C-alpha cells in the first residue's frame, strides 16, 4: 500500500470512530442528511469539530446552513452578532452569548481551513476579526452597564472610553486559531464620573470595567471560554495597575520603557473605533516605539534578544516546535520587527502592525532582496498553516509537531503531502531557510572565537552564568591568586542574591547584566591586587542606584566614567560614601578634567566658586527656598568631590585642599546669609538704624574655618554679632526690635545650613564659642562681645580667638571685631600662669576625648599630635603678642609659626620642623578621612614628627608638663 493511501486510511479510521459517537447520540436528529458525508470527512480531521457536533448539534447545523462555504462575509456575521449583544439583558446572558458565538465561528473557521476552502492569509484575518468582535462586544455591553451604575467618565472630547490595545498577533491581525490574547488597557484622563449622587474616580471605574471584561473573556464556564487573556505586557507587568491613564502610560514609556517593550509595542493596535482619544494614545506610543535616528542601543538590544533566542534553542532543543524552534515563526517575526525598530523611525512605511506589509516594504525599500522576501513570506505562511492545523485538532494552543499516527496523517493531508515524512522533509527545508535568514540579521562585531577567549568574555560568564566554585576558579586561575578567586566568587554570588531581592525593572536588570561584567573586567585591569577589598565599595554604589536606571546607563554607556568611579572608590572610602549617598555626583565623572584641579590663586578660587554658584542658581526661582537649599547642597557636593578627586590623585597639596574647602564654605555661607536676610527683611523689614547698603551684622568663623584649614565634612564654628542700638526697631509692617530681628536672622541662617534635604546638610554648625556658650544669646551685640572677651572669657576662649576671623558683614563691624580680637590677644599675660592654663586644658581635653580602647592612633588628640601644635601656637600668641603684634595678624597655624620664628620665639630649624610636622599630620588625618577611618597605624614618618612635636612641647612647657 502506498504511503498516501496509508495516510488516507488513518484519517478514515478516525472519522469512523467519531461518526459512530455521533450516531450513538441525540445530535444526529439535528444534522441535515445531505451534510453527513461532509461532516464525516471533517470530523476525521478534527476532534474539535467532532466534539462541537456531539455537544452543540444546533451550532453545527447552523454552520452547515450558513457559515461553512468560502464566500461567507465574516464582517456581516460580526455586525449581526453585535446587534444580538445589544439585546442581552444580564451579565450571565452575556457570558453565554459570547461563548456560543465563539464556538460556532471557530468550528466554521476550522471547517473551511481543513477542507481548503480558504487561504491561510484569509483565515488569519477572519480569526483576528472574530477576536475584535468578541472583545469589543463584551466591552461595549459592560461599559454601558458600568455607566448606568457609576456614571460616565467625561473628558474634554466627550465620554472617555477604555482604550484596548491588542498586542502580538492580535495587533497584527494575524491571530492563530487557538491563541490567547495579550491586552493592555488605558484611559485618557484622571477625574471622576458624572454620577449625580455617588461619583467614583475614573481609575476605579475603569479598573472595575477591566476586571469584568477579563472575566467575560477568560472565565471558563459550562459553555467554554472565549479567550485566555494575558495582561503581563502592561506597564510594571503583573505588579502594575490593571489600567493606566494616558499620563501614567506616557511617563512609564518615556522613563522606564524597556527595549523588549518597544519590540512588543510594534504590534500594538487600538481595537476601539477611531476617535480623538485613540489618536492621542497612538501619538503617545509612536515616539517610544520608533526613533528618528538609527540608535546603536537598539541594535545592541536586538543582538541581545537574538542571542537569547539562540541560547534558548540550544538549551531547550526545540527542534519540533514550529514557533519557537530554529527557523520557526518567531524568527520570522523577529526578523521583520527588528528592521522596523532600526529603520521605522525614518521609513514611515515600515510602521505597520502587519508582517506581510512590513516584509514587502523591506523589499520595496531595497533593504532585503525581493526574492528573499518572496521566499520568506511563502515559508511564513507554510508555518502558519501548519500551526493552524495543529491547533484545530482539539482547539488547543500548541506549536509542537505530533508524535501519534493520526495527527501526523492529518497534518500531511491538510498540508498537501502524500505522507508525514514528505511533509517533515519540506518543513525541515523551510525552517532551515528561515534560520539562515535569521542568523544573517545584525552581524556580530568581531570574531566570536576571539571574544570567547577574552578576559571580558570570562567576566561575562562569571556574572551571567550560574557556576560552581570550581568552574569559577577555572575562569580566573590565570588572573588572580587562588584565595582571591575564592573570595571574588563569594562576593559576586552574595551580591547577585542580594539583587534578586531588590525590586528592579527589566530595564535595570538588562543594564546590570551588561554593567557588572564591565565592572569586574575594569577592576581586574586597574587594581587586580585589591579587587576583593575594593569590590564591596563598588557594590555599595551599584546597590544605591539599582532603582535609578539613568545612572546604571551612565556607567554602562561611558566606560571612562566607570573607570574613574573604580579609581576614586579604590582610593577613598569617603568618596565612595559620598557617591553612594548622593548618586548625582556620578554626573561629575563625565568631565574628568574637573577632577584634576591644580594649585590656583585663592582669590581666583573665590571668583570661580561665586561664578559657578551664580550660574547654578539661574535655574532656581529666588523665592523657591526648598529648591534653593537643594541647589546649594548639590553645588557643595559636586565641588567637594572635585577637590577630593584631585586630592587622592596627588594634584593638590594639603594646604591647597583646605584653602579650597574653606573658600567653598565661605561662598556658600555668603549665599545663605543673603537669602536669609531677604527672607527675614520681607517679614519684618530692615532695622531702622541702618544706612543704605548696611546689614549691621557680622559672621565670625572660628577653628578650622577661621584658620583656613577646613577638611572634608568639617563643621563650622560660628559666632553671630550685630550692632543694633537697644531702642532700634524694624521698619516693616510687622515691626520687632532690632535685637529680635538679628536673633531671627541667626535662626534662619542656622535653618538653611543645618536642615537635611535629599542632598543632606549643607554644613553642621557649632555656636558654642559665642559669649556664655549655649546659655548665651544666639546673636550678641558687638559691645557685649567685647565686654565678655575683655572681662569674662576663660583662657581657652582666648585660645579659640587666636583662630577667629571675620567671614562676612559690614566693614565697620569687621573693624570693631578685629580691634577687639587684637586688643584681647595682645593683652599682657603672666607666662607661667598662661602655660599652666594651656597645659591643664590640653591634658583635660586629651583625657576627655582620646579613646583609650582604640587600637590605632588618634592623630589629633595623641601626644605629639595636631592639637599639641595648635596649643603651642595659641600659647605663643597669647603670651607674646603684647611684644610682637605680628603674631595676631593671621589666624592660621602655619603663618603664626612663621611669625613666632620671625619674633625669635623659636629657631628657624625648629619652626620648619614644626610646620612640616603639622602639614604631615594633617595630610595623614586627611587621608584617614578619605579612607573612611578614624585611627592611624603608626609608621616611621608619623613617629618621627610626633617626636619633633613632643620635643618642642617639652622645651616650651618643661618636663613637668
TrEMBL record:
- Work out whether the entry's keyword set contains Manganese: no
The coenzyme or cofactor needed here is: Mg(2+)
Q: Which residues form the Glutamate-ammonia ligase adenylyltransferase repeated domain?
A: 38-274, 562-819
Show the segment(s) annotated as Adenylyl transferase: 454-961
Keywords for this protein: ATP-binding, Ligase, Magnesium, Multifunctional enzyme, Nucleotide-binding, Nucleotidyltransferase, Transferase
Organism field: Alteromonas gilva
Query: Matching NCBIfam families, A to Z?
Result: PRK11072.1
Keyword Phosphoprotein, does the record have it? no
Record protein name field: Bifunctional glutamine synthetase adenylyltransferase/adenylyl-removing enzyme
| PANTHER family linked | BIFUNCTIONAL GLUTAMINE SYNTHETASE ADENYLYLTRANSFERASE_ADENYLYL-REMOVING ENZYME, GLUTAMINE SYNTHETASE ADENYLYLTRANSFERASE
Its Enzyme Commission number(s) read 2.7.7.89, 2.7.7.42
Provide the reaction this enzyme catalyses: [glutamine synthetase]-L-tyrosine + ATP = [glutamine synthetase]-O(4)-(5'-adenylyl)-L-tyrosine + diphosphate; [glutamine synthetase]-O(4)-(5'-adenylyl)-L-tyrosine + phosphate = [glutamine synthetase]-L-tyrosine + ADP
What Gene3D superfamilies does the entry give? Answer: 1.20.120.1510, Beta Polymerase, domain 2, Glutamine synthase adenylyltransferase GlnE, Nucleotidyltransferases domain 2
Q: Which gene encodes it?
A: glnE
Q: Domain (PII-uridylyltransferase/Glutamine-synthetase adenylyltransferase): give its ranges.
A: 303-441, 853-934
Any one GO MF term held by the record is: [glutamate-ammonia-ligase] adenylyltransferase activity
**What is the similarity comment for this entry?**
Belongs to the GlnE family.
Q: What does this protein do?
A: Involved in the regulation of glutamine synthetase GlnA, a key enzyme in the process to assimilate ammonia. When cellular nitrogen levels are high, the C-terminal adenylyl transferase (AT) inactivates GlnA by covalent transfer of an adenylyl group from ATP to specific tyrosine residue of GlnA, thus reducing its activity. Conversely, when nitrogen levels are low, the N-terminal adenylyl removase (AR) activates GlnA by removing the adenylyl group by phosphorolysis, increasing its activity.
Location of region: Adenylyl removase: 1-446
Amino acid at each position: 500500500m502506498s504511503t498516501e493511501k496509508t495516510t488516507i486510511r488513518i484519517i478514515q479510521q478516525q472519522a469512523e470512530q467519531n461518526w459512530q459517537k455521533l450516531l450513538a447520540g441525540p445530535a444526529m436528529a439535528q444534522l441535515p442528511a445531505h451534510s453527513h458525508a461532509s461532516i464525516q470527512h471533517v470530523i476525521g480531521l478534527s476532534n474539535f469539530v467532532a466534539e462541537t457536533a456531539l455537544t452543540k448539534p444546533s451550532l453545527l447545523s447552523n454552520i452547515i446552513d450558513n457559515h461553512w462555504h468560502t464566500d461567507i462575509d465574516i464582517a456581516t456575521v460580526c455586525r449581526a452578532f453585535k446587534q444580538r449583544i445589544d439585546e442581552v439583558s444580564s451579565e450571565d446572558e452575556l457570558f453565554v452569548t459570547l461563548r456560543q458565538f465563539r464556538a460556532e465561528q471557530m468550528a466554521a473557521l476550522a471547517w473551511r481551513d481543513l477542507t481548503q476552502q480558504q487561504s491561510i492569509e484569509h483565515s488569519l484575518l477572519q480569526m483576528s476579526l472574530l477576536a475584535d468582535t468578541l472583545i469589543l462586544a463584551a466591552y461595549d455591553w459592560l461599559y454601558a452597564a458600568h455607566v448606568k451604575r457609576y456614571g460616565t467618565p467625561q473628558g474634554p472630547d466627550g465620554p472617555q472610553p477604555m482604550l484596548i490595545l491588542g498586542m502580538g498577533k492580535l495587533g497584527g491581525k494575524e491571530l492563530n486559531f487557538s491563541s490567547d490574547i495579550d491586552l493592555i488597557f488605558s484611559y485618557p484622563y484622571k477625574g471622576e464620573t458624572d454620577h449625580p449622587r455617588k461619583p467614583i474616580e475614573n481609575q476605579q471605574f475603569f479598573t472595575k470595567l477591566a476586571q469584568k471584561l477579563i472575566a467575560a473573556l477568560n472565565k471558563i464556564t459550562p459553555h467554554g471560554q472565549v479567550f485566555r487573556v494575558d495582561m503581563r505586557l502592561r506597564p510594571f507587568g503583573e505588579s502594575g495597575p490593571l489600567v493606566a491613564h494616558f499620563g501614567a502610560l506616557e511617563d512609564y514609556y518615556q522613563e522606564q520603557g524597556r527595549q523588549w517593550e518597544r519590540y512588543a509595542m510594534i504590534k500594538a493596535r487600538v481595537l476601539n473605533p477611531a476617535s480623538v482619544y485613540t489618536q492621542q494614545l497612538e501619538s503617545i506610543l509612536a515616539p517610544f516605539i520608533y526613533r528618528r535616528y538609527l540608535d546603536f542601543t537598539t541594535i545592541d538590544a536586538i543582538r541581545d534578544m537574538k542571542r537569547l533566542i539562540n541560547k534558548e534553542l540550544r538549551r531547550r532543543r526545540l527542534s519540533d516546535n514550529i514557533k519557537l524552534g530554529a527557523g520557526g515563526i518567531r524568527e520570522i517575526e523577529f526578523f521583520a520587527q527588528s528592521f522596523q525598530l532600526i529603520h521605522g523611525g525614518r521609513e514611515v512605511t515600515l510602521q505597520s502592525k502587519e508582517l506581510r506589509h512590513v516584509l514587502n516594504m523591506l523589499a520595496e525599500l531595497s533593504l532585503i532582496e525581493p526574492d528573499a522576501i518572496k521566499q520568506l513570506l511563502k515559508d511564513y505562511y507554510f508555518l502558519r498553516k501548519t500551526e493552524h492545523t495543529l491547533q484545530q485538532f482539539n482547539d488547543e494552543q500548541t506549536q509542537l509537531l505530533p508524535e501519534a499516527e493520526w495527527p501526523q496523517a492529518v497534518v500531511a493531508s491538510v498540508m498537501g503531502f502524500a505522507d508525514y515524512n514528505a511533509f517533515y522533509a519540506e518543513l525541515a527545508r523551510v525552517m532551515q531557510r528561515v534560520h539562515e535568514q535569521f542568523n544573517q540579521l545584525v552581524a556580530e562585531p568581531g570574531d566570536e572565537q576571539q571574544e570567547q577567549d577574552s578576559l571580558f568574555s570570562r567576566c561575562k560568564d562569571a556574572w551571567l552564568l550560574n557556576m560552581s566554585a570550581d568552574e569559577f576558579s577555572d575562569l580566573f586561575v590565570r588572573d588572580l591568586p587562588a584565595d582571591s578567586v575564592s573570595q571574588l566568587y563569594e562576593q559576586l554570588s552574595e551580591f547577585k542574591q542580594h539583587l534578586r531581592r531588590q525590586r528592579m525593572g527589566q530595564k535595570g536588570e538588562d543594564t546590570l547584566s551588561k554593567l557588572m561584567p564591565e565592572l569586574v573586567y575594569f577592576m581586574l585591569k586597574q587594581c587586580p591586587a585589591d579587587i576583593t577589598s575594593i569590590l564591596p565599595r563598588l557594590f555599595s554604589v551599584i546597590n544605591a542606584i539599582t532603582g535609578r536606571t539613568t545612572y546604571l546607563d551612565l556607567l554602562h554607556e561611558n566606560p571612562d566614567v566607570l573607570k574613574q568611579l573604580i579609581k576614586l572608590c579604590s582610593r577613598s572610602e569617603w568618596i565612595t560614601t559620598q557617591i553612594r549617598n548622593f548618586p548625582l555626583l556620578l554626573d561629575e565623572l563625565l568631565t574628568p578634567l574637573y577632577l584634576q584641579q591644580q594649585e590656583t590663586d585663592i582669590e581666583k578660587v573665590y571668583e570661580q566658586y561665586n561664578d559657578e554658584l551664580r550660574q547654578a542658581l539661574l535655574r532656581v526661582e529666588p523665592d523657591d527656598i526648598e529648591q534653593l537649599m537643594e541647589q546649594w547642597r548639590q553645588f557643595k557636593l559636586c565641588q567637594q568631590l572635585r577637590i577630593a578627586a584631585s586630592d587622592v590623585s596627588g594634584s593638590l597639596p594639603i594646604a591647597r585642599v583646605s584653602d579650597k574647602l574653606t573658600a567653598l564654605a565661605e561662598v556658600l555661607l555668603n549665599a545663605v546669609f543673603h537669602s536669609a536676610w531677604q527672607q527675614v527683611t520681607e517679614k519684618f523689614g530692615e532695622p531702622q538704624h541702618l544706612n543704605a547698603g548696611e546689614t549691621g551684622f557680622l559672621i565670625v568663623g572660628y577653628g578650622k574655618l577661621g584658620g583656613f584649614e577646613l577638611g572634608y565634612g568639617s563643621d563650622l564654628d560660628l559666632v553671630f554679632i550685630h550692632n543694633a542700638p537697644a531702642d532700634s526697631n524694624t521698619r516693616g509692617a510687622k515691626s520687632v526690635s532690632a535685637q529680635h530681628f538679628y536673633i531671627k536672622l541667626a535662626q534662619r541662617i542656622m535653618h538653611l545650613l543645618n536642615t537635611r534635604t535629599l542632598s543632606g546638610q549643607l554644613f553642621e554648625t557649632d555656636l558654642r564659642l559665642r559669649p556664655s556658650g549655649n546659655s548665651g544669646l544666639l546673636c550678641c551685640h558687638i559691645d557685649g562681645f567685647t565686654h565678655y572677651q575683655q572681662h569674662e572669657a576663660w583662657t581657652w576662649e582666648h585660645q579659640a580667638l587666636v583662630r577667629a576671623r571675620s567671614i562676612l558683614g559690614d566693614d565697620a563691624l569687621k573693624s570693631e571685631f578685629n580691634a577687639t580680637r587684637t586688643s584681647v590677644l595682645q593683652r599682657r599675660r603672666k607666662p607661667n600662669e598662661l602655660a599652666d592654663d594651656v597645659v591643664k586644658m590640653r591634658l583635660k581635653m586629651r583625657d576627655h576625648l582620646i579613646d583609650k580602647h582604640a587600637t590605632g592612633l588618634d592623630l589629633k588628640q595623641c601626644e605629639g599630635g595636631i592639637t599639641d601644635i595648635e596649643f603651642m601656637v595659641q600659647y605663643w600668641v597669647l603670651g607674646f603678642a603684647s611684644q610682637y603684634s605680628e603674631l595676631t595678624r593671621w589666624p592660621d597655624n602655619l603663618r603664626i609659626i612663621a611669625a613666632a620664628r620671625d619674633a625669635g620665639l623659636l629657631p628657624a630649624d625648629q619652626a620648619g620642623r614644626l610646620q612640616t610636622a603639622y602639614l604631615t599630620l594633617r595630610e595623614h588625618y586627611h587621608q584617614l578621612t578619605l579612607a573612611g577611618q578614624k585611627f592611624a597605624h603608626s609608621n616611621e614618618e608619623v613617629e618621627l614628627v610626633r617626636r619633633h612635636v613632643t620635643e618642642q612641647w617639652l622645651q616650651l612647657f618643661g618636663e613637668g608638663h
